[in-house]
Amino acid sequence: MFIKSYSNRKKPILRRTITYILILSIMITSITFNFAIAATIGSTGGTKSTASAESVETTADPGINSPSAILMEASTGQVIYEKNADEQLHPASITKIMTLILIFDAIDSGKIKLEDEVTVSEHAASMGGSQVFLEVGEVQTVQTMIKCISVASANDASVAMAEHIWGSEDTFVAKMNERAKELGMNNTNFVNCCGLDVDGHMTTARDIALMSRELITKYPQIHNYSTIWMDTITHVTKKGETEFELSNTNKLIKQYEWATGLKTGSTGLAKCCLSATALRNDIELVAVILAAPDSKTRFSDAITLLNYGYGLCSIYKDENPPVLEKVSINSGVKEDVTCKYLDVYKYLSLESFNASDVTSELQLLENIQAPINEGDVVGQLVYKLNGKEIGAVSIVASESIREAKFFDSFIKVIKNALMN
């Protein structure tokens, strides 16, 4: 029976083989055509929200006495108020915000750990200005050093960490400038890691807001340190053990109910500076004050700015966007790709509005061609308020799909034919 059946099916098999070849030829032609008209897929990224670095015109001037200032909403990066925000000035110890970013970058990458021990060099111990009086050869953990930098603005701890991570302060400073460029800090040049006055060590209120935003949004654990009011560390040296008291240089931690940080600074050239962060009703603000004539003015100006911002701001968050279905693709080993939203959409408004007036529209690319890499943009969800577009969030592939080769296509045709 088996031999007879096999024999009787020779002609049908021959006809089916010819059919497969014809189908395959048509399919290859179709793939080539689709490739020619396929949409180009963008690389990882895409528009997250609306007007990330734009200023918003406001009707009332808050009355800031300091010569340079800026107020930014952290989640969107939107500027609410600015005054001479692009004027290059000396930043003093606000410099240490970038030092802290690099420290947390090193922790995040696994280069260092919080419990690692840091040995203080002669160069680090020789730092003047604000310090915790580390001695040559003294050993402290990374976590203690972060506390000393964040709370007491310690120059010696800053240099010790710079040397621990990158071998020398000069190399560390080069990395600071690289990171500044990545953040779009176009008017900044660092010469040291602690902010001591030196020619060429300059930045702006806008650039400080950018790096402050980076620190608090990427590494929110910084607030575990920046909100400490008083603490102590233990010096262990050849002379024995001694307690040293840390006192926060940022008086807003006590003076302003919603303060969360971030960094003070003062030198002869910089005068009195402050990058203040606060969180109220899920709205996080960054207020930067530069070149204030005295410490009282920098804190009062910061409070004025923060109150001004909280009096204006409301944030719309789309916590429940439409459920995404798979998106069709051409010429891949799979016919569709799973996707996800790049981020939660947030819209900062400086005037009252009804959240029910916000609508969204799903826009997906057509004729998407394989290969697809995880993170490639495949569309966007566009938001409108009373019919006016206010921003969008990108939709990206959540998996990679390679292009189908000849063998993949052949197997697919065979399977389809057998199933039919």
TrEMBL record:
Disordered: annotated span: 44-64
Pathway involvement of the protein, from the record: Cell wall biogenesis; peptidoglycan biosynthesis
Transmembrane segments: 20-42
One of the GO BP terms on file: peptidoglycan biosynthetic process
Domain Peptidase S11 D-alanyl-D-alanine carboxypeptidase A N-terminal: 57-293
Biased composition (Polar residues): 46-58
GO terms for MF: serine-type D-Ala-D-Ala carboxypeptidase activity
EC number per UniProt: 3.4.16.4
Sequence ranges assigned to domain Peptidase S11 D-Ala-D-Ala carboxypeptidase A C-terminal in this UniProt record: 325-402
Active site: S93 (acyl-ester intermediate), K96 (proton acceptor), S153
Pfam families: PBP5_C, Peptidase_S11
Task of the protein: Removes C-terminal D-alanyl residues from sugar-peptide cell wall precursors.
Entries under PANTHER family matching the protein: D-ALANYL-D-ALANINE CARBOXYPEPTIDASE, TRAFFICKING PROTEIN PARTICLE COMPLEX SUBUNIT 12
Name this protein carries in UniProt: serine-type D-Ala-D-Ala carboxypeptidase
Species assigned in the record: [Clostridium] fimetarium
